Amino acid sequence: METLTLQDKYINSVLAELAYINFEKDKNTNQINANEIINKVSSIENFSIEDAKKIFGIIEQKDNNTKNIIKLNGDIQYKFNKSKGYEIVATTNDYGIGKFSSFDGILFKNRENGQLTIAGRGTDFLNDPIGDLVIADGSLTVNGTALFQDISMQKFYDILKDEGLIPSNHKINLTGHSLAGGLIQKFVLHNQDIVNQAYTYNAPGLGGAKAEILNSLGVLPDNIPNDKIRNIILSDGYEVVSGMGVMIGDMEYINGFDGWNPKEQHSIHTIRDIYQKQINFVLQYNISPSDILQYDKKYVGVYGKIYEIILSDEKKILLVPNEDNSYDKYELTPKIYTIDGNIKEYSVKSYDKNGNLIYADEEIDKKEINQPNKEGLLLLKEGQTISQIVEDTAFSSLDLLEYNNLSQEEAKNLPLGYKVLVPKEPPLQIEGEYGVIKLFKNQNDSFTLRLPDENGNKINITYNDNNDLLIYGDNTNPNKISFILNGRFEVWEKDERGVMYLKKISTEEFDILYKMQENKKVLEKVEIKTDNLDVEKIAKYIDFSKEELKELKNLSDNNILKNNI
To answer: Burial letters for 399-415: b for 16+ Cβ neighbours within 10 Å, e otherwise?
Structure first.
């Protein structure tokens, strides 16, 4: 799912509402001027002149000499700050598209980043009651497709593209309310490659009432995910059009409507007002709407609902109400992680309604947190044991002990803050000639090998530039493993039974090869690569004593001459 902030969802609800306005061009310039925008936008319920100025980057015209604001017939004259806000690039009226039973929309351009957005108009009760309400909405409700309007929407895009108003490589945003939201879902289905992100507000899905019946019978799904579409639905109240049929895209349900009127619940200005109130609320506590991924009334406190505000996967804020209707702010950051990388305990800083720090617990430096889901390290909490860490995970205590090369006795006395290494997933277990070999996948997708020897000792070999640990074949069922250990190169292979055995040892001075014969490992070949090899270096790897080697080969004191055995 695309990461969208509260600011993203708010501004696109604004653009969706602005699509209901019929902006008229100045007869002299054939452009939509700033005063036209100020007059039309400020007439919308709960919109002010200041809102219009901010959205469109509008400023007052001033006399160059006196610096006084210019007025005409008593009205302030406005102009555009051409580096801020949104620009109206084109409308469907420019091309005669906004006619009977057709699509009405506006192409907006964000002057700061160049992003283009097509905002579609929903059901227009006043200007097109027959085209929108009767034909389009009727068709959409019953059949799940709006006659002519989906064709007109595609035509509007194609014209804008042909005229160069939408560059060939530009991926557009789409936003729309109600009927327009349904059109947007269908448009994205047919134009995936040209869409960056789409927003729908209180929109129906595809298929209409027919699909709704099939949904209830389990024949069709309620929702088909599509990460380019975010369908936002106001879940309070009694309105039933939103969400009807099969919704294409990711779903998000918001609340905040306290009325009973279905028409008010369905309207775009209700959703926009909810977002505006949320933004005004968080700004009081120095929280940027551009940082908020999720805003919810989640818990019931002593004096009312507690707001949970998600800023990232690892940071959130709680706004807790007081008796006087003010709120204390609690900033929560990760302190202790579970072995699966989930947050188990937070560090907390709290502030009063005036922003004064009330409390801060002992916070571990961010650099020392070492998140297991990213870096594979977990700081041990005081009194915490390996057994407690692996609770409700796929790991066993033994897995974690062996991965960290710890004995059970050592694990009993680990200090506070001990860095426990956490693998990415439970180990692959391979039968080996000296016992079970474990292959752990590390957080960076390399591997750690837990290898037993003939004496019952176990060593850990983790991939790095020095040991060159390599896995051959399927990582879930490797047939060969090689690595460098203490200056020697070892190759382990599976025999016919699937048992992994030491196949080859190689150093700068000698090579030793083994083979399986009647389920028993025997010496196949020894190659001496240097003169005067110390017998002690090779005798421990083969079934010959030092004395036997002397008898087999021409020895000078305790050294073997360069040759093959």
So the answer is: bbbbbbebeeeebeebe
- pTM, full prediction: 0.62
How confident is the prediction for the chain on average, in pLDDT? 81
Helix H or strand E encompassing 35: helix 34-41
pLDDT tens for each residue of 174-227: 999 999 999 999 999 889 999 999 999 999 887 654 445 444 545 445 567 788
Picking from 348, 344, 359, 305, the residue whose alpha carbon sits closest to that of residue 327 is 305
From 13, 16, 55, 20, select the one nearest 34 (Cα to Cα): 55
> Taken in order 542, 543, 545, 548, is the CA torsion positive or negative?
negative
The two beta strands, 223-224 and 247-248, are parallel
Q: Are 120 and 104 in contact (CB under 8 A)?
A: yes
Instruction: Quick: pLDDT tens for 80-90.
Output: 998 999 999 99
CA pair distance 367, 100, nearest whole angstrom: 62
| Run of H or E including 90 | strand 86-91
Q: Which CATH number fits domain 6-23+85-286: 4.10.320, 3.40.50, 3.30.1150, 2.60.40?
A: 3.40.50
**pLDDT tens by residue, 41-68:** 999 988 999 999 999 999 999 999 998 9
